[in-house]
Amino acid sequence: MPMPMPPLPLPGRPRLGRASLLPLLLLLLLAGPARPISFQLPGKARKCLREEIHRDTLVTGEYEIGAPPGSSTGPSANLKITDSAGHILYAKEDATKGKFAFTTEDYDMFEACFESKLPVGTGRMPDQLVTLDMKHGVEAKNYEEIAKVEKLKPLEVELRRLEDLSESIVNDFAYMKKREEEMRDTNESTNTRVLYFSIFSMCCLIGLATWQVFYLRRFFKAKKLIE
């Protein structure tokens, strides 16, 4: 009897092997939701959080400042978000709870500072609890709104999110490659300058030593110490 032929894969539907599933599993692991940051803010204190963010990146965030336990007054703190040049991207006085959003214009270091306005008394003032949930890039996108506008199915929304995430990872690798090239060029330029400086220093030392020999020879001849 002839042996049955194994089923052929359907056109347009490639079979996924382990090598193909590995990048997808990696993306799923990296796509986990970011956790908010919580910290204590003492009275009349200032605490800042810094993060480097790429250009043309959407940044969103939510914050909440809780009143000190046992305090008769509510929470009192100022929030200011700036870049390395000091440009104010978001500012709020007497902030208690709110949201913010902005789009970066260039790769830079961004800083979110909370400054407490509680007076410092003679005794120990209880700290305020600050919670900050800051997202950027793929995490900042609202895929529920995208699904409603474009009428996407849940699987299509997940594929869109994975596509954006993979594009973000590729951009990060491209940026790291660019930084590596810049650092390599800087190292090569520094090595060339050090080499030229070393050659120049050796020429100066040889010239100085030659001048000293001729000078001392003329000096000793003038003193008739040598012929």
From TrEMBL:
Pfam families, from UniProt?
EMP24_GP25L (PF01105)
Q: What is this protein called?
A: Transmembrane emp24 domain-containing protein 10
Lineage, top ranks = Eukaryota, Metazoa, Chordata, Craniata, Vertebrata
Q: What is its main location?
A: endoplasmic reticulum
InterPro entries in the record, alphabetically?
A: Emp24-like (IPR015720), GOLD_dom (IPR009038)
Q: Which PROSITE patterns match?
A: GOLD (PS50866)
Give its localization: Endoplasmic reticulum membrane; Membrane
Give the bilayer topology: Single-pass type I membrane protein
Any signal peptide, and if so, which residues? 1-36
Q: Which superkingdom heads the taxonomic lineage of this protein's source?
A: Eukaryota
Residue intervals of the GOLD domain: 46-201
Q: Which PANTHER family match?
A: TRANSMEMBRANE EMP24 DOMAIN-CONTAINING PROTEIN (PTHR22811)
Please list every transmembrane segment annotated in the UniProt record, as residue ranges. 194-216
GO CC terms of this entry: endoplasmic reticulum membrane
Q: Which UniProt keywords apply?
A: Endoplasmic reticulum, Membrane, Signal, Transmembrane, Transmembrane helix
Q: Tell me the protein family, please.
A: Belongs to the EMP24/GP25L family.
